[in-house]
Hints:
Elements lengths: L7 H4 L13 E5 L9 E5 L11 H20 L4 E5 L15 E6 L28
Antiparallel strand pairs: 1-2, 2-4, 3-4
Amino acid sequence: xxxxxxxxxxxxxxxxxxxxxxxxxxxxxxxxxxxxxxxxxxxxxxxxxxxxxxxxxxxxxxxxxxxxxxxxxxxxxxxxxxxxxxxxxxxxxxxxxxxxxxxxxxxxxxxxxxxxxxxxxxxxxxxxxxxx
Length: 132
């Protein structure tokens, strides 16, 4: 896996770039955003997996992710997706745990039904008819 000295998050000087206002958590713009406003919530210290975080740091990471999502909705998003790719099998390409906060807008995709289940395309529509 990725070493701290080659990790893109560990190599960047985030001073002044973070939007979180917290010393241990960084919030930065995704360099290849899925939607406008796409942010990454990143612990400052290097951890490859969510499973390596202390309960306190995991709680803080998610609190910040919720704050970022709340700000996106306040700014006009109709919803949001939170995503973590943890492990190669899950598509993790940067081996420093981070949460994607992706603002969503009605109509940004043809049919968002199933949401994050779409990471496995054949499982996005998990039932033939929607339950009312």
